[in-house]
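Form 7-S
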Amino acid sequence: MTYVNPRIRAKFDSLSSELKKEIWSLNVSLNSISDLVVALQGIIDNAETSKIVSMT
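Output:
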């Protein structure tokens, strides 16, 4: 279950609904901005990998 620390809730809430949905699906604990950045980077990496795989 994903947890968003109240200290970074405003930053999380400023994301698009698509990104928030992706983060919720990761089941991560977001205690800091760094945790949020890591989650977002994982989404980007996954999207890039999926794009590369679909090109082959």
